[in-house]
Design brief:
about 70% helix, about 150 residues, 5 helices
Amino acid sequence: MELDRIEILLEKYFDAETTIAEENELKIYFSSSDVAQHLEHYRGMFGYFSAAKEQQFEQELPLKTTARKKVAWLSIAATIVILLGMFTFYNQNISQNQDLGTYDDPEKAFQETQKALNLLSKNVNVGVEGMQYVQEYQQSTELIFKN
């Protein structure tokens, strides 16, 4: 009779339908020495649960972390590196002393300005042509998805 009850309790246990009292009954049964032969392989599982229940976490956890200090020092170091980089770049530009883009001849300056403006105009026109496709797409989506 007891074996039948244990088998029923095992089925309920694996279907997650047992109560705590029934689970305790299973733990007591499998911790005893008279376990049925065909149920012997469950002894290790229930024995593990009993042993794991007794374990305690004994390692101390640190209450304060040093992560904020590390982040602060990292921010300071990054700021110093950026400032040094900017200072070096600025000094290189001053030391070159080249007057780029200045012309003594006004006619030559006018021709170079015209070249630069033509190049800018061509690039802007390419962008405007691309925007026409976007506008056409917008109009067609408005026709399709009228609110």
